[in-house]
Amino acid sequence: MIVIACSIAAVAICIAMAMTLWRLAFGPDSADRILALDTLVVNVIGLVVLAGILYGTAMYFEAALLLAMVGFVTTVAFCKFLLRGNVIE
User: Fold this and answer.
1) What's the whole-number mean pLDDT along residues 41-60?
2) How far is the CA of 27 from the CAs of 36, 39, 77, 82, in angstroms?
3) Counting Cβ atoms within 10 Å, is residue 48 exposed (0-12), middle (13-18) or buried (19+)?
4) Per-residue pLDDT reduced to its tens digit, 2-36
5) Is the pLDDT assigned to residue 60 strictly greater than 80?
6) Which of 33, 62, 66, 88 is least enclosed by beta carbons within 10 angstroms?
7) What is the 3-state secondary structure (H, E, C) of the chain?
8) What is the dotted CATH code of the domain comprising 1-88?
């Protein structure tokens, strides 16, 4: 039963990733592309958590936490670059 639920969730996340990639490729401006990239990171975190549930190990949850931290820092750096033109002052 858990395999079926994880499969359905993985398909839903992959559909969300496809729509996010569309926004990333054809976004009207760079702010939309940055938000699409952040959403893509959240979708990847969801896939990693699903793998952790499916395989029953905590290693995937630690990887999801690391991806969340890196994704947050990346989003902040991109936004700062858009606002000021540089990341490090």
Assistant:
1) 95
2) 8, 13, 19, 15
3) buried
4) 899 999 999 999 999 999 999 999 989 988 999 99
5) yes
6) 88
7) CHHHHHHHHHHHHHHHHHHHHHHHHHCCCHHHHHHHHHHHHHHHHHHHHHHHHHHCCCHHHHHHHHHHHHHHHHHHHHHHHHHHCCCCC
8) 1.10.287
- 53 and 6 in contact (C-beta within 8 Å)? yes
Give the model's confidence band at 83: pLDDT under 50 very low, under 70 low, under 90 confident, else very high: confident
Reported as half-sphere exposure (CB side, CA atoms, 13 A), residue 83 has a value of 9
For 56, list phi and psi in degrees, rounded to 5: 70, 35
> pTM higher than 0.85, yes or no?
yes
